[in-house]
Amino acid sequence: MALNKKSLFHPDDILLSEFAKVLGHPARIAIIRELAKHEECICGQIVEVLPLAQSTVSQHLQELKKAGLVQGTISGVKSCYCIHKENFTKVLGLFNEAMHDIMLTNNKEKCC
Amino acid sequence: MALNKKSLFHPDDILLSEFAKVLGHPARIAIIRELAKHEECICGQIVEVLPLAQSTVSQHLQELKKAGLVQGTISGVKSCYCIHKENFTKVLGLFNEAMHDIMLTNNKEKCC
DNA sequence: TCCTTTTATCGTATATTTGCGATATATAAT
DNA sequence: ATTATATATCGCAAATATACGATAAAAGGA
Questions:
Q1: pLDDT cut 90: percent of chain A above it
Q2: Do A20 and B16 count as a contact with CB atoms less than 8 A apart?
Q3: Model confidence over B58-81: pLDDT tens digits?
Q4: Mean pLDDT of the region B29-44
Q5: Could you tell me the distance in Å between the CA of residue A17 and the C1' of nucleotide D4?
Q6: Residues 50-89 of A, Cβ under 7 A from nucleic strand D
Q7: Exposure string for B6-22, b = 16+ CB within 10 A, e = fewer
Q8: What is the end-to-end Cα distance of chain A in Å, rounded?
Q9: Strands laid side by side in the A42-43 sheet
């Protein structure tokens, strides 16, 4: 992008866009879905469900972790992951609220 | 990405990720917000509110249009844009529902 | 101790996105 | 007819993301 202009935007919009962005890849949606589906934290088995190499899945997990949507702990040889319930719920809530507000503001009858 | 693996994922996840992706840039969130805020469709004035060149804003508008979140019509010299209320509401609803379902599934007490 | 297993990280190739200026195009105004 | 204005598109450069294989690191088991 030649120059990174992202920081020139409103912090709220940056936050919302970062949440959206991390969910902007089907692998990461699939990971979240898979994490939610199991009773226990998942250690490893995620790779088997995705059509991607182990290193790639690991990268996606790191991004989800960096965004705070997922948390992980090391348990022996394995790394275990689960959804960071509190964060996820909170950020999803903010996102919904923002989008809802936008649609409330947008009270045009007819348009274009 | 060497090879595009996106198509290997579940269509639902692709749909959700595409919605998220288009909102994954602060400029596009800001555009949506700006469009909602005005009584009438916006013709032009969006560029003035964003810290980006005209051509860049136009590109972001095209992406929002391609994703169906925004609609536009040409009115004389100007192009006018507004939120595609029906589509936006629908896709946002699907997104919320999916995320909500995921969080309902994720009924772990304690984790990692 | 040595080997195996598991996951993270590094290096690299390629794809995509972001951004701009220049230009094209179309209408409006003079 | 000429000029001005508004917006889209093109061409390009730079940044970021995606993906993989190879390798490292760390723990467990033989």
A1: 78
A2: no
A3: 999 999 999 999 999 887 888 999
A4: 89
A5: 38
A6: 51-56, 59-60, 63, 76-77
A7: eeebeeebbbbbbbbbb
A8: 31
A9: A42-43, A78-83, A70-75
**How many structural domains are present in chain A?**
1
Owning domain of residue A87: 12-105
Of B75, B92, A13, the residue nearest B83 (C-alpha): B92
Are B26 and A17 within 8 A, CB to CB? yes
- The answer on pLDDT for B1 being more than 70 is no
Residue B5 covered by a domain: no
CA dihedral A89, A92, A93, A94 (to 10 degrees): 130
B69 touches chain A (CB under 8 A): no
Nucleotides in D strand less than 7 A from protein CB = 4-11, 13-22, 26-28
**Residues B104, B105, B109, B112, CA torsion sign:** negative
pTM score: 0.94
CB atoms closer than 10 angstroms to residue B72: 19
In a domain, B42, yes or no: yes
